[in-house]
Design brief:
The chain is built from ten helices and eleven strands. It is α/β, with parallel strands linked by helices. It has two domains: 86 residues, Leucine Dehydrogenase, chain A, domain 1 (Rossmann fold); 124 residues, NAD(P)-binding Rossmann-like Domain (Rossmann fold). The structure holds NADP nicotinamide-adenine-dinucleotide phosphate (NAP).
Length: 284
Amino acid sequence: MAIRIDGKALAQKMQSELADKVSLLKAEKGVVPGLVVILVGDDPASHIYVRNKERAAEKAGFYSETVRLSADISQEELLAIVDKYNHDDRFHGILVQLPLPAHIDEDSVVLAIDPDKDVDGFHHVNTGRLWSGQPMMVPCTPAGIMKMFEVYGISLEGKNAVVVGRSNIVGKPMAALLLEANATVTSTHSKTCHLSEITHKADILVVAIGKANFITADYVKNGAVVIDVGMNRDADGKLAGDVDFASVEPKASYITPVPGGVGPMTITMLLEQTYEAARRSLGH
Ligand code: NAP
């Protein structure tokens, strides 16, 4: 039976340690890490995510602001707001909650964020840093997964790592981080042929596709480490991962549950990166 990687407990521990580090930074340097989250429109899921981020930031002692904007805001108005926060020294992290309404070009908005405040790590400067082996602001979900590997003592060097899914948010940065950690990485996607033959060779299998219970035991090698990023809701609102936990758990050596696995680490890494940005602003 696999060891369950408890992302919830790890996230709580890290957030509590972060609150101590934030107090110390304030006492010693007079600086409070500041995070602004910009939310456009009424997407219910986005509202929940943003509220959770707001609460976690406040609990960790951050200076936190949420800007809630109407869905019909123009792109120019939104860009002007982002620019205002780029120049506001109280904020070390700026996050624009995606998705944005269809009339707004997401890329233009992401690229308008000062790369040094881009705590989501989506700006091309940060993508470039990541793929050049000099990661700074890294997308929070894969960053959280790397933290889990570290804390659970899962070695990556020389391992066969297979990432299923190649989104800019999860799959691609995950592949870059695994490569940086000296794993031998295979990146797969919806056009990949014979997927199960490839995943079957994985020592480390990270799945981020958005399809409930897609990866069954047939896709998994005995003793593999299986990380499930998926967050899929069924008709009753119940959460399911991309991995069929019941059939895969007996074969895996480590596995993340859904909920309580990867999800809680994402917000934690957002706060960690904002804290690090605040330290960097002091020249550390
Ligand atoms: P996305 O942007 O929709 O990308 C999905 C990726 O999966 C694409 O690269 C797609 O391939 C690939 N894919 C789809 N069907 C496939 C199949 N049958 N075989 C192989 N690859 C397939 O999704 P995402 O933003 O990466 O999110 C993925 C999942 O993770 C979702 O359930 C999302 O809710 C969840 N998520 C969770 C967190 C968290 O904090 N826990 C954070 C982000 C996302 P193509 O590129 O060829 O289309």
